[in-house]
Amino acid sequence: MTPDQLLTRPGTARPTLRSAVTGLPSYVPGRRSAGMDVAALASNESHYEPLPAAVTAVAAAAGAMNRYPDSAAVELRKRIARHLGVTAAEVAVGPGSVGVLQQIITGLCDAGDEVIFAWRSFEAYPILVELAGARPVRIPLDHLECHDLDAMAAAVTARTKVILLCTPNNPTGVSITHERIEAFLQFVRSDILVVIDEAYVEYAEAGSGPDSLALYREYPNVCILRTFSKAYGLAGLRVGYAMASPAIAEGLRRTALPFSVSALAQTAATASLDAGEEMEARVAAVKQERARMAALLEARGWKLQPSQGNFLWIRADDDLRARLIEAFDRADILVRAYQGDGVRITVADPASNDRVLRILEAHAG
Ligand SMILES: *Cc1c(COP(=O)(O)O)cnc(C)c1O
Description:
Low-confidence stretches: none
Structural class: alpha/beta
Number of domains: 2
Distance between the termini: 76 Å
Strand order of the largest sheet: 2-8-7-6-5-3-4
Largest sheet: 7 strands, mixed
Bound molecules: pyridoxal-5'-phosphate
CATH class of the largest domain: Alpha Beta
Strand content: 15-25%
Number of helices: 14
Order of helices and strands: HHEHHEHEHEHEHEHEEHHHEHEEEH
């Protein structure tokens, strides 16, 4: 045998995954809402069916699935641009805003670069950062469940490339005010991309969070991230978008996996934007339920920060969390538990919300 053949000889060694991958948590499939009586309140989905216009558009487009979609998503990007009052050059779409966020991080971070975000916040953040070989920098929330922007600013180093601000924050529901973000932007180096993740912006009370478009116009290093998965009710179709300076948006489009947003998703998103008033009526009903639940829980002694999302956040130690989860489980209510931190419950239809209230009233302390 020649040395070349020795190098290619079959052996006992096996292909190995990168340590960034083996270190990731395994995906634990959530219990699916199998029966009629299971309330699916663990993922902040809309409990409404998709907007009728979206269903009609998808049905009409279904016959063309043998074709690749428009990989530049021209029509959808134009429609989003019109919605926001920007140009299509400033818009990049992706398979959910998680997909867009992956494009952002892989597009901006080299190995060892740092991404700062609050903790606890959206669970996808550390996963996407580590997968990219970058370093997650978690800054604890303050005692009001809000981003501690002073501590986040103090954590900036020469390696910082991206800062993620989640408002309203998932899972705590607290918004960051416009004034605080503006003061933060005045302080942070202008070569750091500040991503404002507004997955729940439609549910926020007017004035509770930032006027992100105004901040974007004033600070070219701001990027706004939004999704059709939550208020628009298209979680299953996978489509979200970023608005950023044309150079960054162009870079995000380049880092996208080709054809990652299906034609069905593009057409449903466009139709959903056209049906904005129907979406707003649904959002108003959820906000009303959120207020009803918060008032009842407060009267029962629960101390909650006001949520600006379509969910409630119960801060709980592990003992209380275990008792709550057991009670929710027994009642066939799926909620999201966070070890060491608490429980997040999606606000849905009044009947499901009443079931949640019965459990929480029984555990009020
Ligand atoms: C749900 C959510 C998203 C959006 O996820 P999609 O990929 O668009 O479905 C983004 N950010 C936060 C904080 C979320 O909770």
